[in-house]
Design brief:
The chain is built from 6 helices and no strands. With about 140 residues, it is mainly α. The protein has one domain: N-utilizing Substance Protein B Homolog, Chain A.
Length: about 140
Amino acid sequence: MKRRELREEVFKLLFRVEFNAPDDMPEQVKLFLEERDEPLGEKECKLVSERYDLIREKVGEIDDLLNKNIEKWNTERIGKVELTVLRIAVFEMLFDEDIPVTVAINEAVEIAKKYGQDNSGSFVNAILAKFVKTGD
């Protein structure tokens, strides 16, 4: 599985966090990985699940950083697609040394364009550019 595909699968799984109680998420992860039109292999399931867990553990910290660095917005006002994309991008920018910041931003913009509204890519790009500029 290529990184872009992995990132997109993690996005789809992490997106469920916005609609399910924390106690329901283990079951949601299981359903996501097992009930698919095109099943993932064991290795891919493990990659997606592990990446999701790493990001999910940092969601509170990531949201705090986003709230600190965006003007006139907060994570409660941001659309769910854009918020999920931003969480993944910030995780990659701060906690994954294997992914260059420019790649994390570019990939986030592409996912936002694909799954969000017409201006989602621009919105995500602007937030992440400000995030980079402030250094947090």
